[in-house]
What we know:
This protein is mainly α. Helices cover about 85% and strands about 0% of the residues. It is elongated.
Amino acid sequence: xxxxxxxxxxxxxxxxxxxxxxxxxxxxxxxxxxxxxxxxxxxxxxxxxxxxxxxxxxxxxxxxxxxxxxxxxxxxxxxxxxxxxxxxxxxxxxxxxxxxxxxxxxxxxxxxxxxxxxxxxxxxxxxxxxxxxxxxxxx
Length: 139
């Protein structure tokens, strides 16, 4: 189980990073100018709503977890939770793909850069999962 203090510290650090990036982007806008496209902002807002829906789905799945005593109940819960996690993971990759696509349209980036960026992100995620599993197994 994750301690609540670790969770809060993680949320604070992520918030600080996001705030720092927001300030950086604001300064870049002030210094170099830029044009906003209303359709891109609308598309990004729709993706933010999708992230909210995904977050609520994760919360609902976590609250549904209950400890059961029978072996068949445990196996059923194990596979059911795994399937739910797989659906949520695929949804998160679709949201990531949509956000990267919207940002690349706004920046006018060639498609091969976008594909390379997506590949690098997926490779880093896979390496992170493998390292987390290895470190947990080694301890």
